[in-house]
UniProtKB/TrEMBL annotation:
<dbReference type="GO" id="GO:0005524">
    <property type="term" value="F:ATP binding"/>
</dbReference>
<keyword id="KW-0067">ATP-binding</keyword>
<keyword id="KW-0547">Nucleotide-binding</keyword>
<keyword id="KW-0813">Transport</keyword>
<dbReference type="Pfam" id="PF00005">
    <property type="entry name" value="ABC_tran"/>
</dbReference>
<protein>
    <submittedName>
        <fullName>ATP-binding cassette domain-containing protein</fullName>
    </submittedName>
</protein>
<dbReference type="InterPro" id="IPR050153">
    <property type="entry name" value="Metal_Ion_Import_ABC"/>
</dbReference>
<dbReference type="InterPro" id="IPR003439">
    <property type="entry name" value="ABC_transporter-like_ATP-bd"/>
</dbReference>
<feature type="domain" description="ABC transporter">
    <location>
        <begin position="4"/>
        <end position="234"/>
    </location>
</feature>
<dbReference type="GO" id="GO:0016887">
    <property type="term" value="F:ATP hydrolysis activity"/>
</dbReference>
<dbReference type="InterPro" id="IPR017871">
    <property type="entry name" value="ABC_transporter-like_CS"/>
</dbReference>
<comment type="similarity">
    <text>Belongs to the ABC transporter superfamily.</text>
</comment>
<dbReference type="InterPro" id="IPR003593">
    <property type="entry name" value="AAA+_ATPase"/>
</dbReference>
<dbReference type="InterPro" id="IPR027417">
    <property type="entry name" value="P-loop_NTPase"/>
</dbReference>
Length: 235
């Protein structure tokens, strides 16, 4: 089942093209990695998928009654976010805000969801710890638990392993893999770690201001774009 589809989508800033003519689909159970150099348009595309930026051409279509606010989103962290003075539980529970409607207080079901996702991510013992006192890897797991509170279908992860050491990065990839395989969560991940992305993902979208490749990770390794980006060919 198709959850997300882009048809000839283009985005611009103040009339200047940022990324053009993207056409791809994300189906239930997929693990799509979006790769490309800095300035390639990856962050712009993320904003478009979240309906934070309107395309100047083409359309972004959501399937299976998916709404943009039902996409669990793990953003790149800023220094201000890293220093956020709230408990782990409070940060995770805030992922349920999109479900509150006109209610002022979180429901029992929402609190249970937060606790369940903390258990899945192995951060229940950190419940009362201040978020800003955690390590980088612990903070990423807290934010991932928060993103899970917003969705049962699809996660959009923006550079989830940036700044993490190799061991912690490996653990994060394992957690994401388990969410897909065991919890049946569809994954869309933006990454500079192209080797890790190709190793982990089922599909690759390579952009460089335009679409360079979309298809399976296996086919990407064999493609001209993949060979160049992975260091196996010449430009």
């Amino acid at each position: 089942m198709c959850l997300l589809q882009c048809k000839h989508v283009s985005f611009s800033y103040e009339g200047r093209p940022a990324v053009a003519n993207l056409s791809f689909e994300v189906h239930e159970g997929d693990y799509l990695a979006i790769v490309g150099e800095n300035g390639a348009g990856k962050s712009t595309l993320v904003k478009g998928l979240l309906r934070l930026k309107k395309p100047v051409e083409g359309s972004v279509i959501y399937g299976d009654r998916l709404r943009p606010d039902e996409i669990g989103y793990l953003p790149q962290q800023t220094q201000v976010q890293k220093d956020f003075p709230a408990s782990v539980y409070e940060v995770v529970l805030s992922g349920c805000l999109n479900q509150m409607g006109h209610h002022v207080f979180f429901s029992k079901a929402q609190k249970n969801t937060a606790r369940e996702n903390m258990e899945i991510l192995g951060i229940s013992p950190l419940r009362e710890r201040c978020y800003r006192d955690l390590s980088g890897g612990q903070q990423q797991r807290v934010l991932l638990a928060r993103a899970l509170c917003a969705t049962r279908k699809i996660l959009l992860l923006d550079e989830p392993v940036t700044g993490l050491d190799p061991v912690v990065s490996g653990n994060m990839y394992r957690i994401i893999r388990n969410l897909r395989e065991e919890k049946k969560i569809t994954i869309v991940m933006v990454s500079h770690d192209v080797e890790g992305a190709v190793r982990e993902a089922s599909h690759i979208l390579h952009i460089a201001g335009r679409q360079m490749f979309f298809g399976t990770a296996t086919d990407y390794r064999k493609s001209p774009a993949g060979k160049v980006f992975l260091g196996g060919g010449s430009s």
